[in-house]
Amino acid sequence: MDYTIRIGGAAGQGIQTIGETLGRVFVRTGYFVFTHQDYESRVRGGHNFYQIRVSTQPVYASRDGIDILVALDSETIPRYEKERTRRAQVVYDSSALKKTYEGPAFIDIPFAKLAKEHGGSPIMANTVATGAVLGMLGMELDALLAIIAETFGKKGEAVVSANRKAAQAGHELAVEQCVTCSFAGEKKDTKASRKKRLLIAGIETIALGAIAGGCRFYAAYPMTPSTGIMNYIASKAEQFGIVVEQAEDEIAAINMALGASFAGVRAMTGTSGGGFALMVEGLSLAGITETPVVIAMGQRPGPATGLPTRTEQGELQFLVSAGHGEFPRIIFAPGTPVQALLQTARAFDLAEKYQIPVFILFDQYLADSQWTYEDFDLSKVKYTDYRLRGEAFSGLAEYQRHAYTANGVTPLGVPGDAKHLVVTDSDEHDEAGHIVEDGETRNRMVEKRLLKKLPRIQKEIAPPLFYGDLHPEVVITCWGSTYGVLREAVDELSATHSAAMLHFSEVFPLPAAEASGYLSVLKKAGQTICIENNATGQFERLLRAETGFVFSGHVRRYDGRPFTVDSLVKELKGKIKRR
Amino acid sequence: MVTAKDYEGQVPTWCPGCGNFSILTTFREAMAELEIEPHQFTMVSGIGQASKFPHYIRCNTFNGLHGRTLPVATGLRLANHEMLVIAVAGDGDCYGEGGNHLAHTMRRNVNVKLFVHDNQIYGLTKGQASPTTGEGTKTKNMPAGVISEQLNPMALAVALDCSFAARGFAGDGEHLKGLIKEAVKHKGFTLVDILQPCVTFNKVNTYEWYSKRVYRLGPEHDPADRSAAFTKALEWGERIPLGVIYRRQRPIYEEQVPVLAKAPLVRLPAKAPDIGPAIREFF
Q1: Does A254 score more than 70 pLDDT?
Q2: B44 vs chain A: nearest CA distance in angstroms?
Q3: Where are the domains of chain A?
Q4: CB contact under 8 A, A285 and B10
Q5: What is the β-pairing status of strands A499-504 and A465-468?
Q6: HSE-CB for B24 with a 13 A CA cutoff
């Protein structure tokens, strides 16, 4: 079983509520779920959709064909006519759409009317719709009823009971009307697989990774698609001892983070391309003052405001070269929510270990996509406190914030913990942190904070993930959020092709080519294709600049939408040469 | 016992006769009299002649970017609200490049002590108009004279309900020392605008020009009276008042952040928390 459900409607109609609830129901019933969202930059109106893929097998991306279409507005049905599969069923409320559709594919369920009759208020129309979808699939209601109790428990028994009745009404009518639905009769072997799983989005795992990494201070200015990090951390701030500060602008946000980091705590900021453009000067300040900072950079299509709520991998080159002057940095580009969690936690470790800025480069697609997991292995989260605090600091005979060391890293003293002064400067400075002009000190400082650190930093970078045929004729390469869709595409291709993939999640500096062996994998392949969610092939350029390797082909998408399995497979098949 | 000598840092690179020298001496004396040791406070500055200040005083120092002094100071305070945080900026630095941060730091009322060395000109970049340069003043890049109206920091502070707003004069060290001490002791965000001649680039607002105009506010002025404070803030030209123009005790930001009620962030354990329970919520 592998179904795709799309809920279409205007902003503010509650498509997200239906989508999230269905996703949780499916996961609790033992299925694997993948969801993604497509929405416009507006709070009310327009047209948005929420897509759920539910399967008995693990799923990592969205498909193109829609099996169940839930139409909350009049635009949904005509708009997705071509995307409906042969078995597709459309569920809608003719009174709300003011139109009736004929034919076995259409199920007219009066969401608002049933909500009023059974729940007492048309507000519960979405609960009716949720129940109806489960009825169409021939699924039981128990998981939904439990979730209703959890969601509305605080509002009292009456609200819970009303919503349950509304769900049941939708469910009953759908079961009745959907006797011919092809999927209703399909046997669903879920009891055996009723294992507890979790459903989580990338934006939530970045926030959880920050908390796990010991983040104590998060300053940001709201900007899609990064705002969810601030919201989640704020919701857990008291529990974990974190200050979340909404800054007056992104310039203030990064400078606040640097102030907090200098004071002795792990600090982070998050933004998108436009906001990061304002932070660039502060990034450079982190570079020369060797102040650790973690920056979550959520990509969306530019230039300027671009497509504010959509997705792109357009800021890799921006991040690689952002900031005036030369200083080290690390860029992680997670491919999955679990990777986002572990990499964000690790970003805090590496930022403090090397006293550098570390980026989590994600995008709207990863931020809003939900994945299904058995659990997270948190034993991989390591915490080392690299700071000089308390007696370890006050007991030192002397201290200079930027003293020359063999490996370039001078321990960070916590100001006030000792009589030793902690001094740093955005100007070139001496070991004590005071302004200098002389060339010799300049040379030694560049060696200390940049050249000595670079080789050690590169050793931290993990090799790309290899997946597929061990002796592939074609190697498809991707980075960041395209991991899931390419993995599924490679699975499909493997029926007819000798194919494998390389996924880079640690993109700058690139993993050492010789040590990690990816270059030989690429060189051995008859054909190499790089897929990217941008127009110019930014990763392709980076790899070529760093290693000289030239891909034989590429697939690029830059309409602001993510790749889907079917369209990607089709494009790749068109590119792969037949032997 | 700390003495002013304990604060002697690097040798200043200011022009001979610069108003910054007397501010420096006065500041060292004030800190010694307050018995605050060099490691007990952190000074944040930006870029400009004034922003070199912390290098000439022995203290914890974050000398950051032009205009970005207050966000760094805010981050410092939120991470460690037991640390005295002093910010030093120039008029271009704070009122020009950093104007947005000034407005919002006043709103937040973070307990940061801001001293603005206001010489009504850009010194480091050699003589361009600053936000406080008088209208009509001719500069190299404004040969026809400054068109924009002169910014009034005191009026801005009163309008934004700044917890403490005062004006000092580099030529009246004894009075300035009192203001510095009062500002450090005040609980809340403080702005002390210090009039300071630039002997190289400002040929209008000289020691003589200021000396003829400035006068110390007497007890008849009540800084708690916001209307009276606004009237005093608007006084500029023939007579320029020195002293605390406006003062209102209101809760500081740090004390209203629930997370900070128990201890400063920097005192919380530096270890990985257990996020297991948070993850359970996603099942």
Answers
A1: yes
A2: 9
A3: 2-196, 200-374, 387-457, 462-575
A4: no
A5: antiparallel
A6: 25
A9: β partners: A48
From chain B, pick out residues whose CB is under 8 angstroms from the CB of A204. Answer: 282
pLDDT in tens, B219-270: 999 999 999 999 999 999 999 999 999 999 999 999 999 999 999 999 999 9
List the domain boundaries for chain B: 4-280
Helix segments in A29-97, DSSP class H = 76-79, 94-97
- What pLDDT, on the 0 to 100 scale, is given for residue A513? 86
User: Among the residues of B80-152, which ranges form H helices?
Assistant: 91, 99-108
User: Would you place residue A182 in the very low, low, confident or very high pLDDT band (cuts 50, 70, 90)?
Assistant: low
pLDDT digits (tens, 9 = 90+) for A157-179: 999 999 999 999 999 999 998 87
Helix intervals (H) in B82-241: 91, 99-108, 153-159, 173-185, 207-213, 226-233
Mutate to test the interface with A, among B76, B105, B108, B257 (most CBs of A within 10 A): B76
The domain A2-196 is placed in CATH, from the list 3.30.540.10, 1.10.220.10, 3.30.830.10, 3.40.920.10, at 3.40.920.10
Residue B19 phi, psi dihedral angles, 5° rounding? -60, -20
Average pLDDT estimate for A317-345: 98
Mean pLDDT of A280-289: 98
pLDDT mean over A435-462: 97
- Predicted pLDDT at B72: 98
What does pLDDT average to over chain A? Answer: 95
* pLDDT band for position A515 (cuts 50, 70, 90): confident
pLDDT band at A190 (very low <50, low <70, confident <90, very high): low
Does an H or E element contain A246, and which?
strand A243-246
> Buried (b) or exposed (e) across A90-115, using 16+ Cβ within 10 A?
bbbbeebbeeeeeeeebbbbbbbbbb
CATH C-level class of A462-575: alpha beta
Task: Report the gap between the CA of B257 and the closest CA in chain A (Å).
Answer: 8
Tell me the C-alpha distance between A529 and A432, whole Å: 50
At A219, the amino acid letter reads A
| pLDDT > 70? residue A101 | yes
CB contact under 8 A, A264 and B104: no
User: What is the structure's pLDDT at B124?
Assistant: 87
Mean of per-residue pLDDT scores for chain B? 96
Q: What is the mean predicted confidence (pLDDT) over A370-396?
A: 96
The residue of chain B nearest to residue A375, with distances taken between CA atoms, is: B279
Q: The domain A200-374 is classified under which CATH number: 3.90.1150.10, 3.40.50.970, 3.40.630.30, 3.20.20.60?
A: 3.40.50.970
Kindly tell me the sign of the dihedral angle through the C-alpha atoms of A477, A482, A486, A487: positive
Contact between A285 and B62 using a beta-carbon 8 Å cutoff? no
Question: Which class is domain B4-280?
Answer: alpha beta
- Torsion over CA: B48, B51, B53, B54 (sign): negative
Distance of CA A329 to the CA centre of its chain: 21
Backbone φ and ψ of B131, nearest 5°? -60, -20
Identify the band that residue B130 occupies on the pLDDT scale cut at 50, 70 and 90.
Answer: very high
Instruction: Report residue A167 as tokens.
Output: 């769900």
Burial tier of A153 (Cβ tally within 10 Å: 0-12, 13-18, 19+): exposed
Classify B188 in phi/psi space as left (phi over 0), alpha (psi -120 to 50) or beta: left
Please report the DSSP string for B212-248 in residue order. HHEEE--TT--TT-HHHHHHHHT--SS-EEEEEEEE-
Kindly write down the DSSP assignment for every residue of B1-63, as one continuous string.
---GGGGB-SPP-SPTT-HHHHHHHHHHHHHHHTT--GGGEEEEE-SSSGGGGGGGB-SEEEE
User: What is the mean pLDDT of the segment spanning A233-247?
Assistant: 98
Task: Decide which of A187 and B269 is more confident.
Answer: B269
